[in-house]
Amino acid sequence: MGEEEKAEEKPKEKFTLHFPTENNLSIMGIVVGALVAILPWLPAIVKGVGAIVVILWGADCVRKTARYGLGTGVPSIGVLAMGYGLVGGITGIVIGSVPVLYGVGIVEPAVLIGVAAVGAVGYISGILANSEKFIGMKIPGLERGMAELGMAGALAVIIESSMIAGTWNASVVIPNIIENGVIATIFILSGFGMLQPFNSCLGADERRGRTLLVSVEIGGLCCIIFGVVASLMPAPSGILQGIQLIILGVIVWILFYSSYVRACLREAHAVVGTGLIKTMR
Amino acid sequence: MDPIILVLILVSAVIGGMMASLGVHLLPVGGAPAAMATATGVATGCVMLMTGSALTGLFTASAVASFWEFEHANIGLVALSGGVGAMLMIGWTMLVANLLYVFGAGIVPVSGRVAVDPITKESQTEYKTPRTDGHGMPNVSYISGIAGGFVGGFGGALIYVTLENYAHFSPATAGIVAIGIFIANAILAAYNIGGTIEGFHDPKFKERIAVGLFAAFTVSLLCGILVVVATLVFPYLGLGGAL
After folding, report:
1. Distance (Å) from the C-alpha of residue B179 to the closest C-alpha of chain A?
2. Rounded to 5 degrees, what angle do the CA atoms B243, B13, A179 make?
3. In chain A, what are the domain boundaries?
């Protein structure tokens, strides 16, 4: 456990100063998300890191599409991502659990079929939304943004299901995640991780680095909540997996929330206390 | 699985998705300007209104579906009950919003886009505050919103009940997949509207509805294909029971 915590703390310095560029973050999201998704035997703490990266990617996609103004508010595109994510994630989980494709041993890549399919659906809906002949939103890069958001949503559903249940095999996920309604928590918490950062930070002085700090912080909160849920689940999940997630979540949340508050205080013109809450300086 | 059933699932996903899109176009959505009572409609986005009402519709539909044994529900009745649930929810939302506008902000519900209410023939222009785009929900917007809630709720419940009855999804899975398809369509419709709309009398409705329905058709067809693939694959998992 100690080593993994240290591994978690390392990227902190780098992350708070500069996040990867938009393209690099997309590649990182796809690679890390796909790797974590196709290796369902990983410990929950690694899946938690994967989920945080996927949520970060989704939040960056929301930022790069919503900054041109959607006309209906930022939350709509984050909820859209999770709407596609539900359809694609459940399809992927079911396809990936087919005995011929599943159980080859260590790597189960068939789950990515659902992710790729929902990426295609997202791209087509992006064409529909952006094209002059159809809805005509005229947002640069909306096609790519919607495809990436669909994929991020599906990966978030798959990784978080496997985080909580221990594996994403349909025989475990359907009774333990879908039937009892945990999927609704996954839906709205991942949705918040993607839509909330830009929704709360948007404005004239919005800065990408500061916005993305909120996303990682919400990822940490998700890990805490999913850790509590996971510790109540039967095997292959359980209390051990849950505690790993809670520890990861608490560390990530404290680090990134405090650095977000510090960034806000540093970049604000002036911070004036109202007297109701004790201010930091 | 019987090919007719697969086609039925696909058709119901497409019809349900298109009805969701039509429902969103009928709602009186005010967005941010309505929060300051300077535009007609409820002061929130399409997505919030439609998701709230359609989820209520899904709850009533699943409650009604539980009166039958699993997989033997009457499709028409369940879908209708979904429509009624959504109608009630959107009706209460608009009523309370109107109460707040009238007694809280002290304004008269009035349409900004038409001079005469097309249903009650009441004159609108005199009551409109200059430089605003109407306020609150006038009669025509209220009726349009109720119709929108019914259509949207009916569509969502139709997807739900078909998935439960014919695709052999369990109620929970059917509900969550129906929400996924519904939300994708509702949000594309919201982008099509682009902020605010008053209802079927709004000139924007006639202008944009064809494009909105086409987008909904394409997206629900693609989502329907994904669901059909999942339905086809499921029996090979050897789990028994329902997805």
Report:
1. 7
2. 25
3. 2-267
